[in-house]
């Protein structure tokens, strides 16, 4: 398999709900006026707590400093796995499950923190730029590694990083087993032809910016959760929304997989997770991979979110409950 280090330097930040009004103009520009900005990697995810934005340095220039803007200090690099045109295994599972054992678990063992962004098209594994040599050293036996430079894929040779390669050297610690919440919403993972984006502009603006006030979010039922994710990355659009939001959009413009699958969410974390703890994604993705269950995974500024097929939610729930009863065995 091939591992590509994409040619984007990313920032991860959050915008408070009450501060969103200060950023609607630059966000609308980044979503709808891509010819007016040089941003090539943009993702906006609404959760009950805040809005998480992941964007490249060109996009980051569009956002002015504010007390309502919380920026994680690191530069992040997106990795993408390509299976050489062949199936990477006999597994029919999609999403993060395909890379749980080959990428997520080895990086967790080397104490590399990852930030996941699954889209309709693919899965992006974000790692800190300062951890890149450890990432390459950890994964070079499993993958042919390439770095995207000005549109070209340049092989990364072992000697390119060997001088700076050091294992993190931290003692292995048992990761915290975080509580999970499984809301009742049914979710869709969808895409859209970028040329038809203007056709849904008013609906998208309404859902993203005007659907709920902060007071409504604070009082939302624990059985349902506010979650909406929009990504525009290298010209490809991905949308994750619940069926209630989906009904507001024209059915003929959004498309999903041929199975039209519905997904249920597993939300990870009782308190905000932060960015330094390692193994959170592996804690969820590894048992799903063992059971060959597909999963999309979206990290946000405060919590992590896995989406699993609706028909698997009962077995996933039982699996996670068992994991929390016997943390030493996980």
User: What is the name of the CATH architecture?
Assistant: 2-Layer Sandwich
CATH superfamily: VC0802-like
Number of strands: 18
Q: Which CATH class applies here?
A: Alpha Beta
**Strand order within the widest beta sheet:** 5-2-4-3-13-14-12-15
General form: globular
CATH topology category name: VC0802-like
Largest sheet: 8 strands, antiparallel
* Helix and strand composition category: alpha+beta
Q: How large a portion of the residues is in β-strands, by DSSP E?
A: 25-35%
What is the total number of structural domains? 1
Rg calculated over all Cα atoms: 19 Å
Q: Could you state the oligomeric state of the chains shown?
A: single chain
Order of helices and strands: EEHEEHEEHEEHEEHEEHHEEHEEHEEH
Q: List the total number of helices.
A: 10
Could you give the distance between the termini? 27 Å
Indicate the percent of residues in helices. Answer: 10-25%
What is the residue-mean pLDDT, rounded to a whole number? Answer: 87
List low-confidence stretches. 86-91, 162-166, 168-172
Question: What can you see in these coordinates?
Answer:
The chain has about 325 residues and is of the alpha+beta class. Helix content is about 25%, strand content about 30%. The protein is built from 10 helices and 18 strands. It has helices at about 25-30, 55-60, 100-110, 130-140, 160, 200-210, 215-220, 245, 280-290, 315-325, and strands at about 1-5, 10-15, 40-45, 50-55, 70, 75-80, 115-120, 125-130, 145-150, 150-155, 180, 185-190, 230-235, 235-240, 255, 265-270, 295-300, 305-310. The chain has an 8-stranded antiparallel β-sheet with strand order 5-2-4-3-13-14-12-15. Strand 9 and strand 10 form a beta hairpin. The longest helix has 13 residues, at about 315-325. The chain is globular. This is Cytosolic arginine sensor for mTORC1 subunit 1. It is found in: Cytoplasm, Cytosol. Belongs to the GATS family.
